Amino acid sequence: MGQSEQEPPPPSDPRLPPGQRTQRGWPALHYGPVPRFKPLTWDFQVFGATASAEKHRWDFAGFNTLPRATVRADFHCVTKFSILGSEWTGVSASVVLERVPPAPGVTHVMVWAEYGYSANLRLADFADPATLFATHRNGEPLTAEHGFPVRLVVPHLYAWKGPKWVRAVEYMRADRRGFWEERGYHNLADPWSEQRFSYQEEPGDGPLR
Ligand SMILES: Nc1nc2c(c(=O)[nH]1)N[C@H]1C(S)=C(S)[C@@H](COP(=O)(O)O)O[C@H]1N2
Ligand SMILES: [Mo]
């Protein structure tokens, strides 16, 4: 058989952004130790520029009464692995925005996790209907290493924009870099345009550093 009669390579999965490959299983990736969940002191705060100018706080029982949603989504780590087609269940970011409205002029949010991990998002990315504070993946509660009791999932951005062990959302009237965004990752993190590193930023993509 000549070269030309060989099977063509399989087309790559259209769900894979450029430079990504699929990964079986689910590796856990984070900076620092896995925090221990303390149900009595755990809370989920919304602070900063709220419409009421008050900080809002749900305890664990209160957070668990919020309406829930399920989203099927892919997960893209900037280190080039992707996990396709997970089913995430939890509380939509839009529910948080509805229950604790931001003040006029809020343009960005910072999502805060245990130990000071943070990720900044444009308000529109946070308000995306698929952005979810996930408590479950594929019907199972998150394990400690994957963010129990709650992590953010922002399916249309690289996964570092989704803090595990979330504790707070800060409403902001200006953009500010989060944990990895201060350490050389791209402020916007769109995997489809491979916004991996801050040196790729165009004017206007992020605050001056
Ligand atoms: N709190 C916290 N959340 C985090 C991180 C972290 O270091 N700390 N790493 C992020 C990165 S870079 C990725 S790829 C995903 C990995 O999620 P996983 O461990 O559930 O696969 O978590 C994100 N959320
Ligand atoms: Mo990552």
Structure keywords:
209 residues, mainly beta, Sulfite Oxidase, Chain A, domain 2, six-stranded mixed sheet, five-stranded mixed sheet, 3 helices, 11 strands, 7% helix, globular, binds ligand MTE, binds molybdenum atom
- At CATH's second level, what is the architecture? Alpha-Beta Complex
Task: Count the E strands.
Answer: 11
The first-to-last residue Cα distance is 58 Å
Bound molecules: ligand MTE, molybdenum atom
The assigned structural class equals: mainly beta
> What top-tier CATH class fits best?
Alpha Beta
Report the principal-axis shape.
Answer: globular
Q: Could you name the ranges where pLDDT drops below 50 across 5 or more consecutive residues? A: none
Main beta sheet, described? 6 strands, mixed
Q: Which percent band covers the strand fraction?
A: 25-35%
One letter per element, helices H and strands E, the order comes to: EEEHEEHEEHEEEE
Whole-number tally of structural domains: 1
CATH superfamily: Oxidoreductase, molybdopterin-binding domain
Would you tell me which CATH topology applies? Sulfite Oxidase, Chain A, domain 2
The amount of helix comes to: under 10%
Q: What is the average of the pLDDT values?
A: 95
Number of helical elements: 3
Radius of gyration: 18 Å
